[in-house]
Specification:
Mean pLDDT: 92
Strand content: 15-25%
Radius of gyration: 21 Å
CATH superfamily: Chorismate synthase AroC
Structural class: alpha+beta
Order of helices and strands: EEHEEEEHHEEHHEHEHEEEEEEEH
Bound molecules: flavin mononucleotide
Number of domains: 1
Number of helices: 8
Strand order of the largest sheet: 8-7-9-15-10
Helix content: 25-40%
Shape: globular
Distance between the termini: 30 Å
Length: 382
């Protein structure tokens, strides 16, 4: 079913050109203050029509909370929020001509031709707006535990910029202020150039987002099926257009020797146990090891392009050519940064709630706080 999470459960609903899209978030602890200004800023980071590099579809993306909040805090009951669709233009979409690379044909088969195809319907990137809302709530919860999440655009098309080395809260805060967050201005210029070139040719480009979380306590996650990698990647792969996820050194770790791939375990000056490097991305055995959690997410080029492409006319059962009209992102990556961050924040909150449930049952006998971990107080999440 279309539900994510163990202790924190989410389900999203709506279609791109329907009256509204939204989310139900169940399992948030009661009493979490809801910072509406922060939520609005986060929504604007993803909202369309804010840059010459994004779709001109203009949406306010204002969130209306229908339940689960009272007098400025969460109540602990299911929180439902909606975002109205305003700026739709359904005439751009042709039901019988599925767009190559988009979900039109797969949706047609799965839903026996009954799905709302307008603007990609339920498969639209627009459905990531409710995820950003949930992510904003989760970031507020995480910040109370001194856990901070951030991301930057590391690659666009064939141009790759630098990767995180030692991310700090200041760096993550600065990245959040930018509509096109990169680790260097030169990279930004080169990446924007790649997007503008593709756009001018009626084409699109993809790229890679690198995300991290700092302050993550040791001991979140489980071995095997409940591993942090499995749970986070399942949420990241739910984001439309995500085609690859890797943790730490990811695929490139395969070409290293063990002596290079292992992160040496060291005693830090403050007495905590750390690893000297972070090639494993803050996870060993599916469980966080108190190092920054680092992952990279590959996003494909936007499927809807103005260049003519081959498809099949479903009403005539004949080959056809399609040059997609309408308003599309020439590159999804800049708008997906806040979505990837949201996924990381949501997953970490769920893991934190799971850990709190575990420790409420049986607190560890030993205090691991001197050894790099930050054990949670029994049942205390706020
Ligand atoms: C923030 C965001 C914006 C997107 N904008 C567009 C768009 O303008 N045009 C388009 O064809 N696809 C866009 N997509 C991608 C499609 O939704 C996605 O490719 C499609 O649903 C098929 O899913 P898949 O690529 O995961 O197979 C966007 C995705 C995201 C996350």
């Amino acid at each position: 079913m279309n539900i994510y999470g163990e202790q924190l459960k989410l389900s999203i609903f709506g279609e791109s050109h329907g009256p509204a899209i939204g989310i139900v978030v169940d399992g948030l602890p009661p009493g979490l203050p809801i910072d509406e200004a922060f939520i609005a800023r986060e929504m604007q980071r993803r909202a369309p029509g804010n840059s010459h590099l994004s779709t001109p579809r203009k949406e306010a993306d204002q969130v209306e909370i229908l339940s689960g909040s009272f007098r400025g805090t969460t109540t602990g009951a299911p929180l439902c929020a909606i975002i109205h669709n305003a700026n739709t233009r359904s005439r751009d979409y042709e039901p019988s001509l599925p767009r190559p690379g988009h979900a039109d044909l797969a949706a047609y088969w799965k839903y026996c031709g009954c799905s709302d195809y307008r603007g990609g319907g339920h498969f639209s990137g627009r459905l990531t707006a409710p995820l950003v809302f949930a992510g904003a709530l989760c970031k507020q919860l995480l910040s109370r535990h001194a856990i901070f999440v951030g991301a930057h655009i590391q690659q666009i098309g064939s141009f790759a910029g630098p990767r995180f080395s030692q991310p700090t809260k200041e760096l993550l805060d600065a990245l959040r202020q930018s509509p096109f967050p990169t680790l260097s201005q030169d990279s930004r210029n080169a990446m924007e150039q790649q997007i503008l070139e593709a756009k001018s040719e009626g084409d699109s480009v993809g790229g890679i987002i690198e995300a991290c979380a700092i302050g993550v306590p040791a001991g979140l996650g489980s071995p095997f099926f409940g591993s942090v990698e499995s749970r986070l990647s399942s949420l990241l792969f739910s984001i439309p257009a995500v085609k690859g996820v890797e943790f730490g050194d990811g695929f490139s770790i395969a070409s290293l020797r063990g002596s290079q791939a292992n992160d040496p375990i060291v005693l830090a000056e403050d007495g905590s146990i750390r690893t000297a490097t972070n090639r494993n991305g803050g996870i060993n055995g599916g469980i966080t090891n108190a190092m920054p959690l680092v992952c990279r997410v590959a996003i494909k080029p936007t499927p809807s392009i103005a260049l003519a492409q081959q498809t099949v006319d479903l009403s005539l059962n004949r080959s056809a050519t399609l040059a997609v009209r309408g308003r599309h992102d020439p590159c999804i990556v800049p708008r997906a940064v806040s979505v990837v961050e949201a996924a990381l924040a949501i997953c970490l909150c769920d893991l934190l709630l799971c850990r709190a449930a575990e420790t409420a049952e049986a607190l560890p006998k030993k205090d691991f706080s001197q050894e790099g971990g930050k054990p949670l107080q029994k049942g205390a999440l706020l």
